[in-house]
Design a protein that fits this description.
Layout: E1 13-14, H1 17-25, E2 34-38, H2 46-49, E3 55-59, H3 63-72, E4 80-81, H4 90-94, E5 99-104, H5 110-119, E6 126-132, H6 133-140, H7 150-156, E7 159-167, E8 172-173, E9 180-187, H8 197-209, H9 215-218, H10 226-229, H11 243-255
Parallel strand pairs: 2-3, 2-5, 3-4, 5-6
Antiparallel strand pairs: 1-8, 6-9, 7-9
Helix pairs in contact: 8-11
Length: 260
């Protein structure tokens, strides 16, 4: 019995054992005792996670994959969650336990998985997974690059991100049309912002919506005071600002009476 890959679920099943093992080995196992794999399919990655000294859970929306896992991984069966990761309340299942997230993520929902991780970062000290290469690079990129953007800043505000390795299309069934990239994210020790988080997100997104313009133009909709606009930081373009600089920028705007 094997599972048929379903296009509407964005399924590309990894078939290379060594790559699956490398992804499993990217887990540091530091500071948590549970791991949740998203979209395990037929369990090629799962079996390597199960070899580790950690409690493994999987979440899978595809009934055919769930039946395969229940048949082939009997010990895992009680910890198979047949739900949509994007729609579940993690607290309801894990009760504030610290857990890592891992997976070969469907390209079409990978950024949503990332944002849900950021939202639940108090529970998620570590995250390892496979994205479309271009997206993985964007998440890990530093300031000064054209690839650096909203995903980079919002992720790196809370996590240290490392691009681990590239994966070719040939190791999947069916093969995607692009390369994939594996990243690891480890939650920062100090992962609460000294500014209003919602407003920080707004500043970052507004700045990068017009990334070619100087900040005094791209942030015009925030109604900055003339005095604030004279600050030299507003002559810069968003891709020039580090994560810390964006936090300082948000604080300057807040101190100007905006965003509170």
């Amino acid at each position: 019995m094997s599972v048929r890959a379903k296009k509407h679920l964005g399924q590309h099943f990894l078939k290379d054992e060594s790559i699956a093992e490398n992804i499993a080995n990217s887990l540091t196992l530091n500071g948590y005792s549970h791991v949740l794999e998203i979209g395990p399919g037929m369990g090629v990655l799962t079996k390597y996670i199960l070899q580790k000294d950690i409690t493994t859970h999987v979440i899978e929306i595809d009934r055919e994959s769930v039946e395969y896992l229940q048949t082939h991984y009997l010990n895992l069966a009680p910890r198979i969650i047949e739900k949509d990761f994007l729609k579940i309340d993690l607290n309801e299942y894990f009760r504030d336990k610290q857990l890592a997230i891992i997976g070969n993520f469907p390209y079409n929902i990978s950024t949503q998985i990332l944002f849900k991780t950021i939202e639940n970062r108090t529970m998620i000290p570590e995250f390892s997974g496979m994205f479309q290469k271009e997206v993985a690079q964007r998440i890990a990129e530093k300031e000064g690059s054209k690839t650096y953007g909203i995903l980079s800043v919002l992720t790196q505000a809370f996590y240290e991100v490392e691009y681990l390795f590239t994966v070719p299309p040939s190791v999947f069934n069916p093969p995607p049309k692009v390369d994939s990239g594996v990243i690891r994210m480890i939650r920062k020790e100090n992962y609460t912002l000294p500014v209003n988080e919602k407003f920080f997100f707004q500043v970052v997104k507004t700045a990068f919506n017009q990334r070619r313009k100087m900040l005094r133009s791209s942030l015009k909709s925030l109604n900055l005071s003339d005095k604030l606009r004279e600050d030299t930081i507003f002559t810069m373009r968003p891709e020039q600002l580090s994560v810390d600089a964006f936090i300082k920028l948000t604080a300057k705007i807040e101190n100007d009476g905006i965003g509170n």
